[in-house]
Amino acid sequence: MTNNKIQKGIESLKKIKMSSNEESLLRENLINYVDKTLEIKTEDNVKTYKGMPILSQYFKVPSFKPQFAFATFSILGLFIIGAGAVGAAKSSLPGDTLYLLKVKVVEPVEGLLMITPVSKVNFEAKKIDNRLKEVEALVKNNNLSKDNREVVEKNLEKNFEDHAKAFDNFVKDKKDTEVKNSVGTTTEQTEFENNIDQHSVIFDKIKEDIPEEQKEEVKKLEDVVHNKMNEFKEDRKDDEERSSHKENNRDRTKSESRNQDEESNN
Amino acid sequence: MCKDLLSPTSSSMEINIIKNQFIELHNKESQAIFRFCVLRVSDRETALDLTQDIFMRYWDYILKNKEKKIDSGRALLFAIARNCIIDWYRKKKNISLESLVEDSENSFNKEGYFLQDNGGEKIEMEAEAELFIKKIEEVDIKYREAVYLRYVEELTPKEIAEVLKESVNVVSVHINRGLNQLRELLDI
């Protein structure tokens, strides 16, 4: 394809070369460079090297190590079992194995998440509601034994006390922040009282078709609820009286001071 | 060549094979790359630096693109060499404002010229080679590089097409027309 002149020109061009020293030096440099990049890649060495971008170790994907497999799966298993147990405990009834977990762990932990006085009151009311629902479920399952009733009763009493405390704090908080809203306080109170009334209606209905023994247990629980509700209502009345007395005093002192001012002006 | 290079399953043996292939490519092509550079930048030291830089870039490229299949290592090497030389001219252009005008007139815009005077040490070569280079310089700029790569560096039209980012047909036409021009210039 090419004739002699071109061929000669090409041959002469090909004589432009690096010296053997230059060539070996270049090879040495390249081998060093290649080795260093391989060190960086394989050992995740964080040495800086000119012209070589290095990934931050923060972006390193952790390698899977078999010796940690047991620990990893154990922890994962515990989480899964724990989550499942909490879910199952929520629907447990007195007499069940997980009921203690529900009353002693799950509910107190949920209670810790309630920050505002309103949410605390609502949460405590919900706990009482849960206890009463548990009684209804036990009756439905024909499982309201004396032991179970005692467990529910004990918890109910404690829940009513907690609710009363939460309600006191709620009322106090309303007064402290001077956003006194009697309608708001009444709403919380009314909702709670209505809910308890609904349960007492349900109790009356379920009592009709159950054996005498269970009827007795239900009645005992009804008495507890009735007594506690009376206490609650009385406390609220006292509160209202106290606050109205204070308001009257405040009004009286205001009118007195106004009269005094008027007299001094005259 | 670099398939599965340094993947998590790559054994040290595989890595050694790839490294040896790279060293082999260097042994075969380092003189050609040096020649390619020295004819473009007209300075021996710069050409040596560029040659080293080109091989390093080649290695970095195969590390980064482990999954890509490389058809021709030579074509890739010459493509990198071409880009490196363009970068070198750009950097050189940025170094001195005074030389900016001169560079833009003489060097950068005439990328593809051989043995231009860049102020470096003159390359020693046979009279025949110098004449031949002069004649190549007179060939149309479009065809010059294709002719050089085809007849001096003995790349296939497909490889040249990869280097110049043209189709194989276009490259073949450029080679033929370039060769005809060269023949005319050499009074053949």
Q: Overview of this structure, please?
A:
- The complex is a heterodimer of chains A (266) and B (188).
- Chain A has helices at 4-13, 20-43, 69-90, 99-112, 117-140, 146-176, 182-207, 212-265.
- Chain A has 266 residues and is mainly α.
- In chain A, helix 5 (117-140) packs antiparallel against helix 6, helix 6 (146-176) runs parallel beside helix 8 (212-265) and helix 7 packs antiparallel against helix 8 (212-265).
- The relative contact order of chain A is 0.05.
- Chain B is mainly alpha-helical and 188 residues long.
- Chain B folds into two domains: 1-116, no CATH class; 125-188, Winged helix-like DNA-binding domain superfamily/Winged helix DNA-binding domain (Arc Repressor Mutant, subunit A, Orthogonal Bundle).
- Chain B is globular, with a radius of gyration of 18 Å.
- The chains are: A mainly alpha (266), B mainly alpha (188).
Share of residues in helices of chain A: over 70%
Q: What would you call the structural class of chain B? A: mainly alpha
Number of domains of chain A: 2
Rounded to the nearest angstrom, the radius of gyration of chain B is: 18 Å
- Residues in helix, % of chain B: over 70%
Q: How far do the termini of chain A sit from each other?
A: 132 Å
